[in-house]
Amino acid sequence: MQGTRPHDVDVDVVVIGAGIAGLTALGALIAAGQNAICVEARDRVGGRLLSAPTAHGPLDLGATWFWSHERRVTRLVDDLDIDTFGQHIAGDALFDDGSEVRRFGGNPIDVPAYRFTAGAAALTDRLAATLSTDAVRLSTPVTALRADNGAGILVSTAEGHLRTRHVILAVPPALAVARIDLPPALPDSLIRLARSTPVWMGAVAKVVAQYPAPFWREDGLAGAAVSRSGPLQELHDMSGPGGSPAALFGFAPGASMRPGRNLADDAVSQLVRLFGPQAAAPQNVIVQDWSQEPWTSPPRVRTQTAHSRFGHELYTRPALDGRLHWASTETSTEHAGHIEGAVAAGERAAAAVLDHARPTTQTTRNR
């Protein structure tokens, strides 16, 4: 998928970011006949869709679920022939108030949801596989955007420049402001909004503990828990279909990460307190700290807490005379923070590009 490096290339559209939002936008544009490419800073596609392989199946370190009412992801699953299974929710849940662990009959924490048998990253892997080999340029971080003689945008990378009519920013807005030298013509109100918009999962670590078997189910537990003592504040069963691979996972917000402490060790100690001595010997513990991912989270990401900025109307208005578009899950007006929201944002941005192009096409035909 790693195509040739861009050197002063002219294209219709440059999509920045090869997560699910960026690849959705890219696929829609190419299908509509646009000369579009995607540039991605990482050496992989997927963004916050990241699955760690194990001998018994993948474990998701980023996005995990989708729900039956989310029609876009449901359609993608069908189109890409991706197998899914239901999230395990049967059994009792636990609540740790810091002084005692209480057991609730039933599971008020989880709701019915679906998981991806091959891992959430299968969505972006298979979507990228449907595109031409030179449509996605990996290991190509963007350093600057500039208006190009009023007719488009100049996209600068370490390898050269891309001249384009449209740019789709399919990365978190706060990351775009922090990592890319954006055009001075952008309104101050938009820059302030982008800088203060939280990054979904950007301020948390996801801790996954793998075990030989889902022993908690034998005790009638769902694997779901809420804790006020931490470091994991919300926990769920992460096991694959049929309980293999067997795993528990939890989210550790940045505020609960203690300087000088080992988060993996602290998490296992907490799992023992919640689920008993069998939790003391995991086969593997994976800590994915999204706040330390330079291509996901900007500096000071933990100070961004105003989630009401998700889906702000300014993100739905293309900037730079209709040529700069926003397309991360944070910018979605529906299901923001979900995979569904990212797909919706990618579709919206692609539609805006195509709508902008239509008058020019019609004028040309009438001449």
H/E element order:
EHEEEHEEEEHEEEEHHEHEEEHEEH
The structural class is alpha/beta
SS elements, strand count: 18
Number of distinct helices: 8
Question: Quick one: CATH superfamily of the largest domain?
Answer: FAD/NAD(P)-binding domain
Portion in strands = 15-25%
Based on the structure given, which CATH architecture of the largest domain is correct?
Answer: 3-Layer(bba) Sandwich
Query: What is the level 1 CATH name of the largest domain?
Result: Alpha Beta
Percent in helix: 10-25%
CATH-defined topology of the largest domain: FAD/NAD(P)-binding domain
The tally of domains stands at 2
Report Rg.
22 Å
Low-confidence stretches: 1-6, 360-367
Largest sheet: 7 strands, mixed
Distance between the termini: 40 Å
Shape, principal axes of CA atoms: elongated
Global mean pLDDT: 93
